[in-house]
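>> received
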Amino acid sequence: MIAVQGTNDSSVVSKCSMVSKGYINDEFLKCFVKRKACRTALINRGYYIRVKCVQHILSKFLSVYSAEKCQIVSFGAGFDSSYFNLKADGKFPSSCLYTEVDFPEVMAKKLDCIRNNSSLRDLLSAKKPVEIKKIVLSTEDYILVGVDLQNIRNVDHVFMEMGIRYSAPTLFLSECAIVYMDVKSSDDLIRWSAAKFPNSAFVTYEQVYPDDGFGIIMQRHFASLGSPLKSLIVYKSILSQQNRYRNLGWDSCCVFTMNDFYESLSDEEKSRVKRIEMFDEFEEWHLKCSHYVLVCACQGALLPFLDIAQKLSSNIQLTDYSGRLEWKMLPKCSHLQRFGHKSVLMENQLIAIVGGFGTREGKHLRLGDLVLYDAKTGNHVCYNIYFNGHLLDIIHSSVITLNCNSLLIMGGRSSPVKTQNESLRIDLEINSDESDAEVEKYRIETLHSSRIFDDQNVICNTKKFTCSSFPTNGCKPLNRWRHTTTSVNFKGIDHVVVFGGCNLESEVLGDCLVLNMKMLIWKEVENCRHFPEPRHSHSAVAWNFGVLVSCGLGRNDRPLNSVFFLDLEFLSWRELQLVGLLPRYSHTSHIWKEKLLLLGGVNIFSELSPGVAVVDLLSLNVRELRLPIQDPENPVLLHKHVSELVEETGEIVVLGGGGNCFSFGTHLNNGPIILPIEQFL
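>> returned
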């Protein structure tokens, strides 16, 4: 019980952080907080959508039923300030009754806050004398009830004693509350509400989908706090939530995710939110919003209220899964645990990995190293990278090979407000004295000699690689990250194609630039009718003397499902006419025997999250494979990862991936993942 109350304390602090940034106007929430804290942009956004959604429901209810003697009952109310905001804004009708129910200890703390703050006291109506022990505060339109919701007999007894109007239009509101109760107790509360209040709506904001990678991390978080999500064990999906309320006595029920709700907001509101603070955690934002829903069950005179909760229809043609993906997970390797990094396949099945975000010496930070991973043996060596005397700690850059011994790094950012604007070259050949060369030769030979997974046996190199600027001319693709850079050989000349990305001004970029590696001159591809819309976090791969650009996140923060081909001969675009491709971004892509493979990513559809898409480039048919059933001990987030197709072994090697999972902590995928290519034929 104490742990569950602790989640309420943490929640109100997070809400205050969100309010202080200007996401929502709330003058009274701070009155219930003893300590303040500045949360991350992701947490601020997460609590913004939660509060915004609840405010929307309350506003709609009062606007429709304010002429009647309506009432609002908040289960697990905690330190919610809705009543005071509605009163201050003049939106709380005199005929309405607002009742908050929570643990006696929580309600006692809330009463102390009200007593000690004049701005709260001044908004209270006249007090009503009450001799009911469980009622902590009673006024003409506001009541605090201290009772454990898990004891439905006590709840029923208190409501009978307080003389509540059972037939009045009633809105029950549960904001991340009953999900902490055991299934029987929460079912009893829902059933009791339906039986006692014939003209009512039960609105619940809580979690769903506990069994995918993000859901497992979410469950772990609450379990570690001592407040497991007990009801989620049984009511896991949108469909099971709908059936729950219908089976417990409610006439009708609708469920929508926070992604659905965010999509319903005006463009002006979305633009306002984007301008508040720097934000670059789109994947975890959409995943969080896919795993939190609003359930709206209605009956009697409140059946029309269901209309406000109808799920928005999508114009995108979606396909169902045609099977389930198979993969093999290799043991943990801490040097490969990172996200936002980039990779390139070199000779001899060596994969070069640059930058990203990971852990070093117990700290989460941007990484400034180069890792050479041997796909044959599983061994790797690590090097620090320096540019202008500073560690090159960047994320969301791009990397390609210039030749067998050199890499070209473009773009990326080294802080939320600083981008890497120079193209950088890393030469892997080591110029050193003979003794050092012999040591290096030994280390590289050891790298290929045997498969080592134990981090204690990893080959750690103390040498430092130094970057140098790679000078080019023309319209350089500066100030961007989450873009793609693709190397294509056309008419015997290597070309580098850069497309899309985002920048410090929060713009989603749609330009395309081509670098002739012989002339070292950039040329911008002119905009045309078939030009792809601006996007970032897309993927790109060389094909047929051109580049295939797939999916990504568009300007309205909506995942895309389009695939475009850039013909280098004519510098023109055409869109592939595909049907059934799931939208996605933050994925990777490969070409295998005239098939385009799109691995992982994120979208806004809870029940149709990306696995692997297999696009036949000849027939344009699409197959979607669902991710494997997740191992609760080793969950995988298949986004912000890298992958390389190794033809010699017939495998795709996935390295890294993960993210800052809302308020649940940072998750880094443990070790490499191997996907046999034959399953995609």
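>> DSSP finds 13 helices and 42 strands in the chain.
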